[in-house]
Fold:
Amino acid sequence: MSRRGFALITVLWLVAALTTAVGLGLSAARVGNAASANRLVLTRSRWAAEACLAIAQARWGDHRLVDTMSIDLGRETRCRWRVEDPTARFNVNTVDEEVLKKVSGVGGQGSGTDFLRTVMAHRPFEDMTQVAALPGEDSVLLDLFTVDGPGTVNLAGAPPRVLEALPGLSVEAVQMLLQDRALQQPIGSLDALAARLSPAGRAVLLANYADLSRLVTFASPLLRLTAEGWVTGLGDPGGLHATIEVLLVPLPDRLATVRRRMW
Structure:
């Protein structure tokens, strides 16, 4: 009887071991299948992002680059893109200290003064995430800066707070720039802007003409295009998206790439 009991226990242990081994094998297979599915989706998502870049390049010649609606590429694969003008912001690595003080508040007494002093002490930066990681990070001020571009500010695209911090631009001048932009009739030069200002506003601009002309432009010399691709089917494992960011120089017939990043 004891031999039969021992044999029975041995058999039960073998069955349990086999069951465990089969379960581990099935689990590993499921993990492998999931990993394969994720790789497939990520590959298709990257293709979709590349397709959006190609579509954006083609639309540049048709003056429809700002069309950012989602595009159905077929087989449950979609993409979209967005376009930003880095020169609508101050380049945090080159902006003048006096401009930084004006951005932080009148006379440099605004709440962001300490943060901007930290920025000055730690620049240059390679990426805005480095700026955002500084002590006293100010999200409102971060929206006014970039690390891309030659350091000039595009008056045809800069937000009001950026315009107000530039030397020589009175409240009247800022309002005129914004008004003409809203009418899709942007002013094309400082001389054209000065000619339309009141005597007081013109005097302020002309007194700062040399500094202002060094700091501004009226068209974007650089664009940042971010394309995103994804697959809506296959249960959307992990919600995987592929993103490609390119920094572009706009030319009459094409967009020349100067930097490319993918994640």
User: Anything to note?
Assistant: The chain is about 50% helix and 20% strand. Residues 2-60 form the longest helix (59 residues).
